[in-house]
Amino acid sequence: MARIIDRYGRRLTYVRISVTDRCNFRCRYCMPPSGIRWVPHEAILSYEEILGLCGVLEELGIEKIRFTGGEPLVRKGFVDFLYRLRERHPQLQVAVTTNGSLLKKWAHRLADLSLTALNISLDTISKDKFFYITRGGNLEEVISGIDAFRSHSDAPIKVNAVLIKDFNDNEEDISAIITFASSRKAIPRFIEFMPLDGDVWSCGRFISADNMIEVLRAMGYTRLFDEEGQNSGPAMYLQNPFTGQRVGIIAAVSRHFCSRCNRLRVTAMGEMRSCLFADSGVNLKEPLSSGDFEEVRNRIMECVAAKPQSWMGLKTSSQHMSQIGG
Ligand code: SAM
Ligand code: SF4
After folding, report:
1. CB of residue 29 inside a 6 A radius of ligand 1
2. Ligand 1 atom closest to Cα of 200?
3. CATH classification for the domain delimited by 4-324, as one of 1.10.8.640, 3.20.20.70, 3.40.190.150, 2.60.40.1120
C-alpha cells in the first residue's frame, strides 16, 4: 500500500475537500455580512473531478476524506455524489462537516451511507444567540436535523462550537452545549477561534484552550487525554470521572498540533493546500479536468513536499475559512 510521508516524517492519511465556497449562513467569525464573492460554478471542481481525485488519493494511501465547505449540503447533488463515492471507493472513510440547517431533508439518505463521522457546527443552543452568530440561522432547523439523523443512524456525531469571548465562553453556555450534545449521543467539542482574516473578527475575541480547560475542570471534567487512532483529529479530551461524559478541545492556535498533522486540504476550486494557514497551493483542477491522473499525482506530491513543519512563521492566508474549507 502506497503511503504519503512528508519531509518531516509525518504520514498523511486525511484530506478535507471543500465542495463549495457557498453558504446559507454568514457566521460572524467566518464571513462578512455581505458574504464573499462566490466562485463561478464552472470554476469549482465537478463531482466527476472530485471522484477522480478521491481515486488518486486512495491509491496514494489516503484513508479518510472529509467533505466540507462553505456548506456542503447547499450544493446540488451532494448526497447523490456521496453515494457514487461510496460505490466506487467503499474502503474510504467518509466524513461530512455541516452547519446542520439542511440536515433534516437529507438525514435519512445520509444515515444510510455509514459515514465515519458527522460533524455539526453549533456554537450555542440559545435561539437568539444562534440567530445572531449565524446572522439569521434558525436553531430549531439544526436541532431537528440532528434529531432526524440520530433517529436513523448510530454514526458518531460531533457537535463543534467555536468559543468566542463574551459570546459563549461562560459556564452556562458551555454547559448547555454539553448537555444538548450528550442528550443526542454526540460528543461536544470546543474550538479555538482562528483569526484567519482580520476583517471578520478581531483577535480580542480569542479564548485559549487553557481557558477552556480551566472552565471545564471547574465543571468536573478533570481527566485529560488525547484522541486516539490513526485518523483521529487534533482534539484533546477531558472527561468527567463520575458521569463518563467526554468533552473535546481543539487548540488549533495555542497548541498547534503540527508535529502530528496528517492532513491536506482541497479548496472548492481544486487547489490543494498543505496547511490551513498557507496562502497558496497546487492547482489540481486542470489535470483533473483533462483526466491526467499522473499529473494529479505529481502535483499532490509537490504539495506534500512543500508542507511546512509548522504554520508558525507562515504568511497566513487572507481567505476566510469558508473559502479554504474549514
Ligand atoms: N458550513 C459548514 C459548517 O459550518 O460546519 C462547514 C464549513 S465551516 C468553514 C467548518 C468549520 O469551520 C465550522 O465548524 C466553523 O465553526 C469553523 N470555522 C469557521 N471560521 C472559523 C474561525 N475563524 N476559527 C475557528 N473555526 C472556524
Ligand atoms: Fe457557513 Fe460554516 Fe462559515 Fe458558518 S462557519 S458561514 S455555516 S461556512
Report:
1. yes
2. 23
3. 3.20.20.70
